[in-house]
Design goal:
Elements (H helix, E strand, L loop, with lengths): L9 E2 L2 E2 L3 E5 L5 E5 L2 E5 L5 E5 L3 E2 L4 E2 L5 E7 L6 H4 L20 E7 L5 E6 H7 L4 H4 L13 E6 L12 E5 L4 E6 L4 E7 L6 E5 L4 E6 L2 E4 L2 E4 L4 E6 L4 E5 L1 H7 L8 E4 L5 E5 L4 E5 L5 E6 L19 H14 L5
Antiparallel strand pairs: 1-2, 3-4, 4-5, 5-6, 7-9, 8-9, 9-10, 10-11, 12-13, 13-14, 14-15, 16-17, 17-20, 18-19, 20-21, 22-23, 23-24, 24-25
Length: about 325
């Protein structure tokens, strides 16, 4: 079918992954496949696919119901004499734009209908906020084509003492940095670097705390490795301190995904973890005891990667699931 021309079901026994799927109140599903941002109905009919940029990593909804997704802009927004172009072969674009030159990470806001409402290069945010040195002067003689590696955009849903509705938390893996950015003024409100390394997945816990999935991975001489274990770091803006959440649980169950990884602290204090590289999800009780775990193993005995799972636990989540099940009943009518 022509409308699915960008979607390959199988390629040499490889099945496409639905990355960070988001279910809406009407039972529709947003997700990414390789680099396309896609929405399908509860009956699996294509509603739209946006191929404007190379979309990657997280999908999150803001207070207005719009969707924020990281992307790689092409052509790059920075001048040719700074970053070049290296025009990619569209047929060979990978998730991270390999072969496409400088990875011009951008924050993109889309309407529920797939229309791009706002787009901004993170490199330009750096330059316009006095941080250009982090892009082009840290290495000795080598050009870094992926100095930022944006992997999560977490919208702020309401005003607080330390942030405002409409602000965004950004996780920048290759900077080992978290930004609080205000699109309305193009200002970086706060930045934190360390004690996390190559982190992913920021969540807002309450009016003054955020959680960060810390991969704790470091680029040593023999490659990128987890230096110990993954952990969840809590930053308290009010007290200006970092702390660890359920560290003994990570130790006991040897949680150590090198890349990716997600977490969610539930309202009752329980903790959900995706150990992406090893296809494992874990659920810990508030006291740190393991309630359940799942390994994504197929009937053939092989383990297959998972990619940015969500746990649906709030009343709103449950209502969305019920609406999906209800609308699915009419699909064959």
């Amino acid at each position: 079918v022509d409308e699915f021309k960008y979607l390959n079901r199988d390629n040499n026994n490889y099945r496409s992954i639905l990355r960070h799927p988001l279910l809406d109140k009407d039972g529709n599903l947003f997700f990414k496949r390789t680099s396309q941002f896609i929405k399908i109905s509860s009956c699996s009919n294509l509603i739209f696919q946006n191929t404007h940029d190379l979309f990657h990593h997280s999908i999150e909804r803001d207070y207005e119901g719009n969707i924020w997704v990281p992307s790689h802009m092409y052509p790059q927004s920075l001048p040719f004499d700074k970053v070049g172009r290296n025009i990619p072969n569209a047929a060979n674009k990978s998730l991270f734009g390999d072969g496409g030159g400088y990875k011009d990470d951008a924050i993109v806001k889309l309407s529920p209908e797939g229309e791009i409402l706002f787009e901004k290069s993170v490199s330009k945010i750096f330059i316009e906020n006095g941080l250009e040195y982090l892009l082009f002067s840290l290495g000795e003689r080598y050009f870094d084509d992926d100095p930022i590696h944006l992997n999560d955009i977490q919208p702020v849903l309401g005003d607080g003492e330390f942030w405002k509705e409409g602000d965004l938390f950004l996780s920048l893996r290759h900077q080992s940095m978290i930004l609080l950015y205000r699109p309305s003024t193009n200002k970086i409100i706060w930045k934190g670097a360390g004690p996390f390394f190559h982190q992913h997945d920021i969540d807002i816990i309450d009016d003054n705390r955020i959680s960060i999935f810390n991969n704790n991975s470091k680029a040593f001489i023999n490659g990128d490795i987890v230096d110990g274990l993954n952990n969840i770091i809590i930053y308290d803006f009010n007290k200006n301190i970092y702390s660890f959440y359920l560290p003994d649980s990570f130790q006991k169950h040897d949680v150590r995904t090198i890349t990716e990884g997600t977490s969610q602290i539930l309202q009752n204090g329980d903790l959900f973890i995706e150990e992406t590289n090893y296809a494992r999800t874990l659920y810990f009780n508030e006291d740190g005891s393991l309630r359940w775990t799942h390994l994504n193993r197929g009937d053939d005995g092989n383990v297959y990667m998972v990619s940015w799972s969500r746990i649906l636990y709030s009343k709103k989540d449950i209502n969305n699931v019920n609406q999906f099940l209800k609308t699915r009943e009419t699909c064959n009518e």
